[in-house]
Amino acid sequence: MALSKAMSIAASSLGLGLALSAILSICSTAQALAADETTSTNQADSADDQQPVKAVNEKILPLIIDAYNDLNKGEAAKAVKTLNKALTIDPDSITARRYLAFALVQSNSYVQSLSQMQKLSKITPMNAFDWYVFGEAYAGAGAPGHSLSCYQQALAISPGYHAARGGAVKALVKQGQFGKAMELVDKGSAFATDKVVKKYYESLRQGVLDAELYQKVAARLGSNQGISQEQMEEQASKPVLINPSMSEGDN
Fold it and tell me: What is the pTM of this model?
């Protein structure tokens, strides 16, 4: 009976995540897109070693904007094709490769996304969004330890990066570290001022409790009674459905 109740609560939490992803657009503005390349380059600058700012190739900017619009409409596969086309024109584009990696995550092509992120890390310092995407790719590829490290890197750069904190919570739950997961939820709640964000953390909190309940019930009943170990792990690692840019001015 307790297991049935937990499953019902988990379904409600997942519904809230879907609502959040619909409310929060994946796109900011075309200007923000164009600024990505210069932002990444500037992160590598220091007082003693100024590097030239690399502007976005004007030939591929329309393609990148089209890809952003496709992602906003949930057409990740189409965005992947568009961004691959952009990279055939300018293989050195930081922006195109960055968002190709994200589009691949959205397409559940996690290994391919990891490959793009590894290439990206060799040509530009990683920003908070990059570490978030890296974390999502590792999570999808079944490496929660690596994903957690990436989310932590994102949070070190941007403590108010809610999507990265949600990913870290998910990774900790996957590893059965429910106490640490709840600590992260509490820390994120302290950053939250927006009502939607607060509701998101309430959903995360319930998700941690649900996953812990699954583990306890599974341990008590045994894998051949009720929920199996595989089912428990699947429930614990449900994706955090939240906009990747979700923060309150910190990333």
Answer: 0.72
